[in-house]
Amino acid sequence: MARAALLGRLSWQFGELVELVHETPRVSSLYFNIPMWPGHLAGQHVDVRLTAEDGYQAERSYSIASPPEARWVALTVERLDDGEVSPYLVGELKVGDKVELRGPIGGHFVWRAGDDRPLLLVAGGSGVVPLMAMLRHRATAPHKAPARLLYSSRALADIIYREEIDRLVAANDGLLVSHTLTREKPAGWSGYTRRIDAAMVKEVAWPKAQTPAVFVCGPTPFVETAADLLVGLEYDPLWIKTERFGATGGAGGG
Amino acid sequence: MKMQTSEMKLDGNAIAGLLGEIFAVEMTTAHGTCAACGAVNEVGRVDVYIHAPGTVVRCPSCEQVLMRIVRGRGRYWLDLTGMRCLEFAED
Lengths: 254, 91
Hints:
By secondary structure, chain A is of the alpha/beta class. Chain A is built from six helices and eleven strands.
């Protein structure tokens, strides 16, 4: 550990939970005070490690939801009932409790507000979390690249950050958001009500001539489908950055 | 027909932490050359399977194994047979 600290390498440290926000019935945002936090980029994640009394350890990756500018590091976590880590983070952890974490992690799936290419974000379920860090980061920037978010959720009640996203759109600063619901069609709903498909992506995505920066995040099958549809619009695969959460969400499952 | 995608497949982002334990610099932005097909891919874009005993990293172009990483009993085993070259920035 001394060597890791010397080289500025990834080391575990404790973060204290300072605020807990219930986003949906199964999803909460956890705001941590991490004393030695070196700062992060929108799109990065942290690893969380839990240690049982008998020494057994479980480790999971969670995307950071807060922008680099925020005071606390926020993780938005979906509770998976058969998970080893998420049921503890969403349900048992209380304000004042400490959790072992390390980060920020990752340098590929990141976006900086200085990037002035049109931004296309495609989210499936809790895949919206790192994309929300990007939109929050964008909201603080003096110059804002035009941005579009296509966000697929099961039902209205499952949309994470719904009110905040509405507020970001209402700021009228070049952000467009298209929701689709795959298992519900609420009365008065004006968004899409089907799984992501070619027609939907064609309506929402920037024309390829605008050479957008694209970030796709969600469960593995969703990400594969979305990336294939974008390549079908003749997007250069190198414009598209993807992050797969696995079959159920949360790298490694729960 | 497209082959059914394994729902277990992750990508290079999922091993950023593990690689951060081993390498001194950020590795998901490194470029790796596949020893089998010669394709060059950013590590963030490679296919990753973490449900095996150990981590298996495959070439997204030809599916050959690029890297195998096993961690246990305080040691790492890093098999880079399938990775002809790894190129990364100094810091």
